[in-house]
Amino acid sequence: MKRIFPVSIILISLLHFTGCIPNTSTQIQSTAIPEIFPDYTYVTVPSTIAPLNFTPQDTSYQAVIAEFSGTRGNWFRVKGRKNITIPKNKWTELLKANKGDSISVTLKILKEDKWIQHTPFPIYISEHPIDHGLVYRLIAPGYELYSRMGIYQRDLQSYKQKTILVNTLFPETCMNCHSVNRGDPDFFNLHLRGSASGTIILKDGNLDVYDTKTPETLSNCVYPYWHPSGRFIAYSVNTTRQMFPMDPGQRIEVYDTASDIVVYDTEQNHLISSKHLTTEHFETFPAFSPDGKDLYFCVADNKDMPQDYKEVRYALCRLSFDSETASFGTKVDTLLYAPGIHKSVTFPRPSYDGNFLVFTLADYGTFPIWHKEADMGIMDLRTGEWQLLEGINSPHVDSYHSWSSNSRWIVFSSRRGDGLYTRLYFAFIDENGNTGKPFLLPQKDPARYYPETLYSFNIPEFITSPVDLDMRKIAKKAARKTNMQWGGLKDNGPF
Fold first, then answer.
1. Would you say residue 388 lies in a domain?
2. Selection from 36, 403, 381, 351 nearest residue 183 by Cα
3. How would DSSP label each residue in 354-399?
4. Is 241 found in the same domain as 102?
5. Mean pLDDT per segment of 10 residues, for the chain of length 495 residues?
6. How many domains is the chain built from?
7. CATH number of the domain that 430 lies in?
């Protein structure tokens, strides 16, 4: 006897499904732009981004339809009970065909057996590409114990996330301060704290693990930033503490009692510095200019800590650097004296084309990721003028950020979703410093993923290709770490 009942069941199910949804010609026109999560209305995206799946904010609907059409052609429709899950092939073809232009999205929602058609909204497709992916840390909220955490990489053309390193391989270990050189994963830096402490440096395929603490420096090296040549890495060395203020809404405050800046010469295995970077003041957050001739950093007056932690405010400064002689200039330029406007500037990140520098601005302190008032600003390095990124900032924390290799995109962390967890957002920045509306890192099922995840995204960095680290080699190298040596202060006169 032939087994035909599976086909019958499928046919009956299809008839039942189509019978439950009235014809879309029976509809009500709405003049409102639909409210969706994530909010992808009017955003500017690269042509290679993963499908922007979304869900209507109004949950009292029976079904939903989204129609996607391009200014230059291509059209398709997506139906769903709850979510709009976009087919990757059709999405990729649509964006490719309309690169440099826009697509239109028309949302139809079934409520009380009637279709409500919302006003279409555009998504702008930039002609400027974005890098292959991101590296970031996923970390659960916590202040005293090293919970499960890891360093991961994400392919931006899909939802694929891969593990680079997790601390279950190194018990009681915190991993942080990862960085790459202009997105090149062959120049990779990662610091481990705890039982397996050490700094992993991958340079042009050569991997080693270092003990970065010397008798002459305050601490192990943190907050790394690569010189464009790949020879040098700038670090901060800090004596860091945390406390839990009594202020409502202020969960934690992290502060320094001392901090300096050093530069590691990978060819000589020397840590060097300048008398201008090792003063009685607090120097931190170094970043080399794209041409390698300057070092940006933040500096604050020394205060009585922790009593005066709200009086600590950092200014943005610059000191010249000669990569040929591995030495520093003698004149420190102040680019933004934030204490003069009762603000503190941190996380300076110059664009790789040398035109702009994005930073974080908070009311005080060195650790703005728990400061609700923290916003991002942008400085035009050609004119010295700066302004807040009004089109990007939110009422919640907007803090750590990095540039794509072509200087047209930034990724940044923000708590704008729920005020508790940091999520990653992207924004387009054109050659004049104008920005597009930010959009949330796409997920296959964002309406489920973001409310249910217990991890925050931390320190996002663009990568131009996948990171490849050998775990066994790291374990072996960590067991016999290389000691960094102190090379002294290298002030070489004005240049």
1. yes
2. 403
3. SSEEEEEEESS-S-GGG-TT-EEEEEETTT--EEE-TTT--SS-EE
4. no
5. 34 38 66 95 98 94 96 92 96 97 97 93 98 95 65 97 83 78 96 79 92 94 96 95 75 88 97 97 98 98 92 97 96 97 98 98 93 96 96 95 98 93 97 96 97 94 95 83 94 63
6. 2
7. 2.120.10.30
